[in-house]
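To whoever is on call:

I kicked off a structure prediction for a single chain this morning and the downstream step that reads the tokens threw a length-mismatch warning. I double-checked the sequence; it's 551 residues and nothing unusual in it as far as I can see. Pasting both halves so you can look.
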Amino acid sequence: MDHAKRMQADIAVFPELCLPGYPPEDLLLKPSFIEGNQKFINRLAEISDDIIVIVGYACRDQGLFNSAAILCNKQIIHIYHKQFLPNYSVFDEERYFQKGDSNTILAIEDLRVGINICEDIYYAAGPASIQSLTGAASLIINISASPYYGGKVQERERLLCTRAVDNRTNIFYVNLVGGQDELVFDGSSMAFNENGRILARAKPFVQDMLILDLDFDSVQFARLEDQKYKNQRQAQKSSRVNIINTPYKIKEKTKDLKPAIDQYTRAISCPEQEAFDALVAGTRDYVLKNGFSKTVFGLSGGIDSALTAVVAAFALENENVNAILMPSIYSSESSISDSQELSANLGINHIIVPITDIYEVYLDSLKHLLETTQVNITKENIQARIRGNILMAMANEYHWLVLATGNKSEISVGYSTLYGDMVGGFSPLKDVYKTMVYKICRYINKKYTNLIPEHILTRPPSAELKPEQKDEDKLPRYELLDRILKYYIEEEKDFDYIVKKGMDPEIVKEVINMVDFSEYKRKQGAPGIKITSRAFGKDRRYPITNAFKLD
């Protein structure tokens, strides 16, 4: 707010529920939490002299509302309550909030400004339309907490462009940024004119201040020439709007602000960059906001732990990233050398802790209980759990946060060891399919000149828990596996539909059964960053105990 005043801004806008954080979940059921949130809104109001401030918070007013407080002249001059409460995917706002029913228009001298919140602008006949048509608002301000997934930024652009053109109005869309548990908010705030043209963007995945001067005369000319707009306005006459006269005089600007405005105008270059930026932002915020400064993970020489290492190194200072190399009798020499080379390229710490002797002690202690001398699933998992124990020991000793390194493909079908490679306080790649892991790594190597050793990208994936082991001994090729998983998890398609897409019925059946059986593992896994339209966790809720099985 202070910076906005120095920049001679008339209105400073902050995102949806930015004061209590989004989503606050059951904290909203604590009276002291709501009271604290109200106390801080009052404190912000006290410094709202010489500016209008719009800020998202939770308002208790004969019920609890997801609200936008409008602050001016050291007062709360009005409160807008969100009308459309999402209750799908990761959202459960109807659990906590009541729906608002008033369409707010701020009258600032001759300018009319409509205020609404996130989902409100998704509906063609919703608040934005009423505020523009009935209330003649020349500017719609939408404050939002819209979490990221691949393609979401482009979806929003198309939606907001349509709203701007349909209502012949400027739209200023202000989105939350940063990580909150499994969600990461990309920011990507945007301003549109009445023709749907993007005037400016805020930077994605980092906090940014976007300052913009808007021209409202062009809105009036566009409305005079647009017969569709005039017809729509006639049809909207029955809708009610709440005009709030604002005790504020628009500033005469005394200096040219343009040299001080750093506006981001480029779109993100590719899906791989977008996903990588999301992983870095989500990991950084989860680590730091939860009181950690350092991380630790197992670096195996495989591609998943390599990408985890890169994400951690970009998210934190290099000296705060610790990789543990834990070779066994089945580890190849290249696994160790590739891991050392990657650690050197990233400038992160690495420690070698061989597990062969520990493994032999386990086998000797359990020899009277083990039914075979062959390396079976029991002996494979013992190795994974030894590694998990070592990582947790380092975490306890040095207050490091353990990062699990599994990807979505493996987690989907249970190709992971509970209390072994699933050990961790956070799982950055939890929602990243194996094929996407490869794509992101190739993007990183192209942009940062072979940061990841090429051999890591070209070697066949292997857990290296027994001689000559390959992932594809137990799983379909990852290209095929990921296609099936996307149909089954993200699109909720059933067996018959997937088979009709030309895939082998036996493979489809096997994959579906593995996904369903592994629910108990996923329920015990670490949280991770959502980057697809349907992630495990709040996004996809299935019971462990059920009798619904594929015949």
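Update from on-call: the warning came from a stale cache, not from the record. Cleared it. Sanity check on the structure: The CA atoms of residues 8 and 162 lie 31 Å apart.
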